[in-house]
Amino acid sequence: IARNWPYVAYLPGWIFWNWLPGAREFGYGDAYHTTNRIRVEGLGIHLAQIVHFYAHSKPECAAFAQWLMRKTPRERRSSFPCTRFFLTEAPKLKPLRDPASRMPLARHFENMGQTFFRSGSGPDDTYALFTAGGVLEMHKHFDHNNFVIYKKGFLALDTGTRPEPGMHLTHYYCRTVAHNCVLIHMPGEEMPRYWGRRAPGEPDLPVPNDGGQRRRIGSKVAAFETTPEYAYVAGDATAVYHPDKCRLALRQFVFLPPNHFVVFDRVVSTDASYKKTWLLHTAAEPAITGYTFTAVHEQGRLFCRTLLPERAAVTKIGGPGKQFWSGGRNWPLPPGYRTPDTHPLLGQWRVEVSPEEERTQDLFLHLIEAGDAELERIAEAELVRREEQVGVRFGYGDREWEVLFGTSGPPSGRIKMAAGGEIVLDRRLAENVQSQAGLYGEPPHKA
Number of C-alpha atoms within 13 angstroms, CB side, residue 215? Predict the structure, then answer.
């Protein structure tokens, strides 16, 4: 088994990157979003199997599985009751003291289409998930270039839930509008269907034109890198929008630990009149002041500053009767469903950013700061323009960051960081996908 399926040994690593404080997860795909608890039932026996089968061929992975087992509840029963009789006595593996400290700042899982970011592995750390690429269509949403941010609460979240039956699932939850993505509104566009059916008593209504994507797979990761100072991913989602409305949908996402994200979108429509809308969903009502908004969830707070478009409409939509708004109406949960519409983890509000002027090409640039609920303001930031580049400059602690992005051609950019008045980092953003191998994501060894 270990020889024929060596990749299974790395499953505990993927579980680790999904694991948030309090045994939670990001709520990816067809997750219910009622608790966002990571499902640990049965996990212990799977980890025990990895320890058993891979102890000799991949001892580091087996030891990591053993370490992860200590984080899961001890099982009294198993869905695979005979399995334990086939497992020999646990092999003697060198125990891992703190494997989390060896993990990089980010990890890209190519087949899953997921890139994870984390400042550390403790309850006060910042965590994020970016969705792009991937080959798996099962339970996949129209959510390319979506991001989720967690710090002491879900600050930018994946919204809705999956009642079956219920039009909430088919007409809102799976749609681009339910995610932190970009919409391009082409009048008359017919959106593809998703699995599921309407509940008894619900009217038979067409899928609303949310301005979103139409393919569940088809985006690509154009660039990725992780360093001790920052991590970066670029997602090209052009191919998943209708070709009659979209010429380019490129998002560049930079994590500057411990708490900051820079999000740059370059969007080109086929018609200047097709309205573009940048979305960020929150669990509670956001407060908007000019081009800055803030929202809280549990013990965390998010601030977001719009730097581009320079003339933008920043509005919010949500609250009772409008939590799941799309196509001019709300798509509530079916009557009697076990979770109320007002549950925070389903997403109660969203902020929409749209340019005030009509253009075929629009640039969206946002600085996001995640912090404790007591955080009072976002870092002071300014828009920076260079020849064929735009970006942001801001200070945090004794560091000053400058992140620039190319405004034409393939995704590009430059990042600079000064500390104590001295430049300690000045380099181009990656223009390809950095290779990662093994449990800890080290670059593959060259022969």
Answer: 16
Number of neighbours of residue 399 by Cβ within 10 angstroms: 16
Amino acid occupying residue 295: A
From residue 136, how far is each of 110, 173, 234, 386, 405 by CA, in Å?
A: 10, 18, 19, 39, 30
The residue type found at 42 is G
Residues in the chain: 447
Q: Give the Cα separation of 315 and 350 in Å (integer).
A: 9
Evaluate if pTM is beyond 0.90.
yes
Residue ranges of alpha helices (H) inside 27-152 are: 43-54, 59-69, 83-86
C-alpha–C-alpha distance, residues 265 and 382, integer Å = 17
Element (H, E) at 234: strand 231-236
Q: 10-residue block means of pLDDT along the chain (447 residues)?
A: 88 96 97 94 87 92 92 66 55 82 96 98 98 96 99 99 97 99 99 96 96 98 98 99 99 99 99 99 99 99 99 99 98 96 99 99 99 98 97 97 98 98 97 94 62
H-helix or E-strand containing 269?
strand 260-269
Instruction: Please list the residue range(s) of the chain that carry CATH number 2.70.98.70.
Output: 106-381
Sign of CA dihedral 68, 71, 77, 78: negative
CB 153 within 8 A of CB 299: yes
Residue 123 CB-density burial (10 A; 0-12 exposed, 13-18 middle, 19+ buried): exposed
170 CB-side CA count, 13 A: 19
What topology is assigned to 106-381 in CATH?
Beta-galactosidase; Chain A, domain 5 (2.70.98)
In angstroms, the CA 99 to CA 67 distance is: 8
Residue 364, classed as helix, strand or coil, is: strand
